[in-house]
Design brief:
The structure is a homodimer of 230-residue chains. Chain A has 230 residues and is an alpha/beta fold. Chain A has six helices and ten strands. Chain A has helices spanning 20-28, 43-51, 71-90, 109-118, 131-138, 178-188, and strands at 4-9, 31-35, 59-63, 95-99, 122-126, 150-153, 168-172, 193-196, 204-206, 220-224. In chain A, a hairpin with a 7-residue loop joins strand 8 and strand 9. The N and C termini of chain A lie far apart (58 Å). The relative contact order of chain A is 0.16.
Chain lengths: 230, 230
């Protein structure tokens, strides 16, 4: 019988934000895939191994999918990643694929999962805490209450500048484009908070738009609420 | 010294989706607040006690905040809830307030937290898995990949019918208004999935708009992606 591919979210950074299910599945399985060239250098490994030290002695498989805007190149990497995974599944071994945050939220796991499912294998996703929830918790603020909407934008350079009037904005992966983010927020007359590397030793917190630097790291997240809570 | 108010998300239903931090804080503290009239009847208690059986022997405090659209009535209930909490904090006791899903996402904890903070006490939020992540995981589908946006709507009756063209829609708390949801989706030419009581024994799954019944329970969630994954 073929193995199962598990896509497991390890959460946003704090190892204690891993779920019981993530911990159990890592413990119960021998083959662990990590997104990167060297498994032990990945952020996902650093998070998970702090919560589950025995991870160190598992069979760690690197799935290297370098960032590129070339669609053909991307496809090739996804196919290669799926091939590595499928070789283990065919041997009847489960694979636990660790991803940052939640596997349903902008995760590279999705691409591998899609191919592996098409090829007839069984896959299962296990939710993790998304970065925007952890950032709101860090700031002791809600993302939304009552009837408020939440709008999540992963790519600021695509924004036309016409964001909806109402609801909370969550701006992700905007690190290198913070000047653009600040411009959009100022236009909308909104304030915002920004957290870089939330829940890690390198965490930085900004409480107002004007404090936010023009460039920041990849793991930066902006939350802008329509109204400030009184 | 005053105690600390912890707002802890217990996730969407499956006790294994609780975080290590939630489990630790429940274990380490004696006073646990639960949103409802009878603590042991609440969904939050049922989830948390399955993961942390010793919860049964803790001091369980009911915080009753009945649903109402009367703003003054709401305010009164929130003030009463905060008073109960503050009485313990003043005795130097921490309170662990359990909420469904994530405390930053449409949680009643936010209202209590806001008052308690204003009154000068320390509070801390601990993220939980939001229902929309768990629903996506249940369906083995992403909420979003690449540059796709995510739009979360908590109150369908407020929607004008002009949803954005692009991105994923998440429609929450729409159980009693599913006919309206289906109408909006049909207008937009989109298909959708719906899961009721995700991760519990009463779970029901619908794979297409046309399968969705006109009324469903409170814990129903619709996900509509702009494009189907091929």
């Amino acid at each position: 019988m073929n193995g199962i591919l598990y896509g497991i979210g390890v959460g946003p950074g704090d190892p204690e934000l891993m779920t019981l299910k993530a911990v159990r599945l890592i413990r119960e399985n021998r083959v662990i895939a990590l997104p990167g060239k060297k498994p032990k250098d990945t952020v996902a490994y650093q998070i998970a191994s702090a919560a589950v030290p025995e991870l160190e002695h598992k069979q760690l498989i690197p799935i290297h999918m370098p960032m590129t805007h070339d669609k053909e190149e991307q496809k090739k990497h996804h196919r290669e990643g799926a091939d590595i995974v499928e070789a283990y599944l065919q041997q009847g071994k489960n694979i636990v694929f660790l991803t940052l945050g939640d596997p349903a939220v902008y995760s590279t796991f999705t691409y591998i999962q899609r191919i592996v499912e098409k090829d007839g294998f069984q896959t299962q996703s296990v939710s993790g805490i998304p970065s925007f929830c952890a950032t709101a918790a860090r700031m002791n603020m809600p993302l939304a209450i009552g009837n408020e909407q939440i709008h999540i934008y992963p790519a600021v350079h695509n924004l036309s500048g016409t964001l909806p009037d109402s609801g909370t904005y969550v701006l992700m992966k905007a690190g290198s484009k913070m000047d653009r983010v600040k411009e959009i927020l100022r236009k909308s007359g909104r304030d915002a908070v920004m957290v870089e590397n939330c829940g890690t030793g390198k965490e930085k917190v900004y409480f107002h738009v004007d404090e936010i630097p023009n460039t920041a790291g990849y793991y930066s997240l902006v939350i802008s609420r329509e109204t400030r809570l009184k």
